[in-house]
Design goal:
Dihydrodipicolinate synthase/N-acetylneuraminate lyase, 305 residues, Aldolase_TIM, lyase, N-acetylneuraminate lyase activity, TIM Barrel, DapA-like, alpha/beta, single chain, 8-stranded parallel β-sheet
């Protein structure tokens, strides 16, 4: 990448057939739809991609299919998280070899009782940085149960060459982003938020330069970031207020199922299947989701029709 990545970097859902197999053609259609949504980059194999129900072979397949199909139209961020440092290094090298523009990774964890000390976390990220030459985004999320205080994140940015992007989705994310930016200075190239942009305005106030949401409504959330960064704060606030009911419903009621359900309704993919032990959303939740999506005339809701 010639300049720092900013804007809207949504996570691509992983489509499955109704029987639960990886849908390769559906994956290609998801990527095309997201590009038509005007995204600044696409992230694959993240938590909202159901990375935790994919086999190693399926991950490798989806990495190759995605990077070959996107073919440089937008940057692709490949998530490589795993507890094993060697597995993360292998995944990172493979992703870069196929053309990934960036990696995203969580700190190593295996349940709340199996978390390395800070030295082990630093060594984990250092090993990946030593193996590749593209930026690394640190995903700081409650899911891991790993505490990454601001001084640790700043140390990572200063001491580990390719660590320069941060996705902060912890409670009180805005305060953490502000402290990270202040203490890290020039070493913090890309401060991002997540959680479907539910705290986006506060995080933009704190200095974040972009957001990593789902693929549900990036064509509406992206302009919020762009307007804010061009100092049109009224337009940014108005856009966020417009999107907020759907943001809230996705974040609090639907989770990773929302984008898949809307994409199935819009003909992007053939099934919104989620792998067990995940369960389909209730009809009540689905009906409200589609109502809110229709009110916003989302691209995903009509892309394949």
């Amino acid at each position: 990448m010639q300049s720092p990545l900013t804007g809207i970097l949504p996570v691509a859902p992983t489509p499955f057939t109704a029987e639960g197999a990886v849908d390769e053609e559906g994956m290609r259609r998801v990527l095309d739809c997201m590009i038509d949504q005007g995204v600044d980059a696409i992230c694959i194999l993240a938590n909202y991609s159901e990375q935790f129900v994919l086999s190693d072979e399926e991950r490798a397949l989806l990495t190759r299919v995605s990077l070959e199909h996107v073919a440089g139209r937008v940057p692709v961020i490949v998530t490589v998280s795993h507890f094993s440092t060697q597995i993360v290094v292998d995944r990172a090298r493979y992703a870069e070899s196929l053309g990934a523009s960036m990696l995203m990774m969580m700190p190593p964890y295996h349940g709340v009782g199996l978390v390395p000390a800070e030295a082990g976390i630093m060594e984990h990220f250092q090993a990946v940085s030593d193996a590749i030459s593209i930026p690394i985004m640190v995903q700081d999320a409650p899911l891991s149960g790993v505490s990454l205080p601001v001084p640790t994140l700043v140390r990572m940015a200063r001491e580990i060459e390719h660590v320069s992007y941060f996705k902060i989705e912890t409670p009180f994310a805005a305060d953490k982003l502000a402290a990270l930016i202040e203490q890290g200075g020039e070493h913090i190239v890309g401060p991002f938020d997540g959680e479907e942009a539910v705290t986006l305005l506060a995080d933009l106030d704190a200095g974040c330069t972009g957001t990593m949401t789902s693929a549900l409504q990036p064509e509406l959330i992206g302009p919020i970031v762009a307007n804010y960064r061009s100092d049109d704060l009224d337009a940014a606030l108005a856009g966020w207020k417009r999107c907020l009911p759907l943001i809230n419903h996705e974040n609090r009621q639907c989770g990773l199922r929302a984008a898949k359900t809307v994409m199935m309704e819009g003909g992007v993919i053939g099934s919104d299947h989620v792998r067990h032990p995940l369960k389909p959303m209730s009809q009540r939740t689905r009906s409200r989701l589609l109502q809110l999506a229709k009110e916003l005339d989302l691209i995903a809701l009509k892309w394949g029709k």
